[in-house]
Design a protein that fits this description.
The protein has helices spanning 3-24, 31-36, 77-94, 116-123, 183-188, 219-233, 271-276, 288-292; strands spanning 38-41, 54-60, 98-105, 128-140, 153-163, 167-174, 193-200, 206-213, 239-244, 256-258, 261-265, 280-281, 307-311, 316-322, 335-340. It is α+β, with helices and mostly antiparallel strands and 345 residues long. It has a single domain, classed as Endonuclease/exonuclease/phosphatase (Deoxyribonuclease I, Chain A, 4-Layer Sandwich). The chain starts with a helix and ends in a 5-residue tail after the last strand.
Length: 345
C-alpha cells in the first residue's frame, strides 16, 4: 500500500473521530433552555402547610441507579423503578415541605428514559418543582470503557428542587469545569451548578433555597466553587444551602484512604470551613462518635458525610437527622431538617 493511501486512511480516521466527538457532545436541548433550566407544576393541589415551621430534605439519588449507579453495572428498568420507589418511600416518610435533589435523570438511556423529576413530584406529593440541567448530551462515554453498553449514553440530567410552597424565581449558577481536566474530558463532564430559588412562604415572606452539587475530585476547584457561591449570594439572611458538597466536616478523623474509594482525599480540603464560617449547619458534630452517626456515604456502609443543610440568619433549626431508614435506593443517605421562627421580610 502506498504512502498516499496510508495518509488518506489516517485522515479519514481522524475525520471520523472528530465527527463522532462532535455528535456525542451535541446538546439535546436549546442552549438557552439548558442555561436557565425551568420551573414547573403538577396537577396536585397545594397542601395545607405551616408557613412559620417547615422542613427541608436533601437527597443525592444517583440517577436512580442504586448503590452501583455510577459504575459499569447497568441497571435495568425494573431495578431503576425499585430504587425510585425506595427513595420516594423515604421522602414520603419524612414528608418534607422542600426537597433538594442532586443527580436526577429526565430522559436518559442510563435510567431507561424514566422522567425522574415528574415521577418524584407526583409520587411524593409536590405541586411545584424547578430543574437545573447539568448534562444534555447525545452520548456520555462514562464509565470510561470500550464496552459502549456500559456508557451513560444519551443523557438529560440535572438537579431539582421540589416544593409545597410556590417557587417565584430560579437562578442557575454554573461553575467553571476543573482546569486540570483535559479539554476532551471536560467536554463530556457534567456541569457543577448551584440552583438558587426564591420560595414564597405566604405571610412569612420569601426565603431563598440553594441546591448545590460541588466538585468531587479536586479540592481547589471545590474551594473556588464555594467562594463563587458565597460571592454570588451576598447576604445570607433567610437562606438555606443544601446538597452534596463532596467534602467532609472539619471534625472528621479519617480524611483519606476510604475502603470504597481510595482516591478520595480530603487532607488539604478547606471548602467545609469556608462555608461554615458564614452559615450554620443543622448537624454540627462535636466528637468522633457524633460524626460517625452522621455519615451519609456510601449508604450501605457509611464512612463519611458528604451531604449537608446549612442556613443563615432569620432561621432557626428545630431538629435534624440523617435518614438511616432510606435504604439502598441511592448510594447516598438523605439529610432532613426542620426550621421555625422565620422572620418576615
Amino acid at each position: 500500500m502506498s504512502i498516499k493511501w496510508l495518509l488518506l486512511g489516517l485522515v479519514g480516521m481522524v475525520a471520523g473521530f472528530v465527527v463522532l466527538i462532535w455528535w456525542a457532545a451535541g446538546t439535546l436541548i436549546p442552549t438557552e433552555d439548558y442555561t436557565q433550566g425551568f420551573m414547573g407544576t403538577t396537577s396536585l393541589d397545594s397542601p395545607e402547610v405551616s408557613e412559620a415551621a417547615f422542613s427541608v430534605m436533601t437527597y443525592n439519588i444517583g440517577f436512580g441507579g442504586g448503590l452501583g449507579g455510577l459504575n459499569a453495572h447497568v441497571p435495568n428498568r425494573a431495578q431503576i423503578q425499585q430504587n425510585l420507589d425506595k427513595m420516594v418511600a423515604a421522602v414520603r416518610a419524612q414528608n418534607p415541605d422542600i426537597l433538594c435533589v442532586q443527580e436526577i435523570d429526565m430522559a436518559s438511556r442510563r435510567s431507561t428514559y424514566i422522567d425522574e423529576v415528574r415521577w418524584i413530584a407526583t409520587q411524593a406529593g409536590f405541586p411545584y418543582y424547578a430543574v437545573a440541567y447539568t448534562w444534555a448530551q447525545q452520548w456520555v462515554p462514562y464509565p470510561t470503557t470500550l464496552d459502549f453498553r456500559c456508557h451513560f449514553g444519551r443523557t438529560l440530567a440535572g438537579q431539582a428542587v421540589f416544593s409545597k410552597f410556590p417557587i417565584h424565581a430560579q437562578q442557575v449558577l454554573r461553575f467553571p469545569k476543573p482546569g486540570q481536566n483535559s479539554w476532551i474530558y471536560n467536554l463530556f463532564y457534567l456541569d457543577r451548578v448551584a440552583q438558587i430559588l426564591t420560595l414564597d412562604l405566604g405571610a412569612q415572606g420569601l426565603i431563598r433555597v440553594v441546591n448545590v452539587h460541588l466538585e468531587a475530585w479536586n479540592a481547589r476547584s471545590r474551594e473556588a466553587q464555594v467562594a463563587q457561591l458565597l460571592s454570588t449570594l451576598g447576604t445570607l439572611d433567610r437562606t438555606i444551602v443544601a446538597g452534596d458538597f463532596n467534602t467532609i466536616p472539619d471534625v472528621a478523623q479519617k480524611r483519606d484512604q476510604f475502603s470504597d474509594d481510595s482516591e478520595d482525599d480530603y487532607r488539604d480540603d478547606h471548602s467545609f470551613s469556608q462555608i461554615s464560617r458564614h452559615l450554620s449547619e443543622v448537624l454540627p458534630a462535636a466528637t468522633p462518635v457524633e460524626e460517625s452517626a452522621q455519615w451519609t456515604y456510601p449508604s450501605d456502609a457509611p464512612s463519611r458525610r458528604l451531604d449537608y443543610i446549612f442556613y443563615g440568619p432569620g432561621l432557626t433549626c428545630s431538629g435534624s437527622e440523617v435518614v438511616q431508614s432510606a435504604g439502598s435506593g441511592s448510594d447516598h443517605l438523605p439529610v432532613a431538617a426542620r426550621f421555625r421562627h422565620v422572620s418576615p421580610q
